[in-house]
Amino acid sequence: EDWQGCLTSKCCVSEGYRCYKKNDHWAQCRNKCTPGIDPHDQQAGVHVQPWSCDDWDFTPHKCAGSWEGCLNTKCCKDPKQRCFKKNDHWAQCRDSCKPGIDEHDRKMGKHVGNWSCEKFDDTPLPANCSADATESCLTTRCCTNPNSTCFKKDDGWATCNETCSEAIWDQDPLEHRRKWKCDLV
């Protein structure tokens, strides 16, 4: 049920609700969770302790929404997003990911730590993947060469390569010579 404890069950009945962990003693079905002190807890004056908001949901076939935790579900509702791992405690559904400190984390001043950007979901089989360097991997988000990674240049192009540098690539046609973002897709 909505807003009920789910520490043991690790699942929620209602659509749009996920099981989020507060600490080792409490997890709750909620429609969203923001790490830190919950204003409702503070207003009630009870159990005023920070929420970790670890994704504790193990509901079968229930994928995480945009920007939600996907450490346990290992899948995202939005087919354009991937589950990217930050560390052993957090993974999130996002469009792309750049290893290192995330600018959004830095601006919020919370949970500032390095993202590994390891893909943490079911990636398509190599037979369905883009060819290295000649085709965009923006849609398939995977590469035929196991040593390559799909790197994003901009919102319109990504390609498979073994490395990426945030620079203008000499191999790009003149009309497409812009700096690469090098986000992992």
Provide mean pLDDT, rounded. Answer: 82
**How many DSSP H or I helices?**
2
Uncertain spans, ≥5 residues at pLDDT below 50?
none
What is the number of E strands? 11
The residue fraction in helices comes out at under 10%
Question: What is the terminal separation in angstroms?
Answer: 35 Å
- Spatial arrangement of strands, main beta sheet: 2-1-3
Shape, principal axes of CA atoms: elongated
Q: From the alpha-carbon coordinates, what is the Rg to the nearest angstrom?
A: 19 Å
For the largest beta-sheet, the strand count, sense and barrel status come to:
3 strands, antiparallel
Structural class: mainly beta
N-to-C series of helices and strands: EEHEEEEHEEEEE
Assembly state (oligomeric):
single chain
Beta percentage is: 15-25%
Describe the secondary-structure layout:
Elements: E1 18-23, E2 26-30, H1 39-44, E3 54-55, E4 82-87, E5 90-94, E6 100-101, H2 103-108, E7 114-115, E8 118-119, E9 149-154, E10 157-161, E11 183-184
Antiparallel strand pairs: 1-2, 1-3, 4-5, 4-8, 6-7, 9-10, 9-11
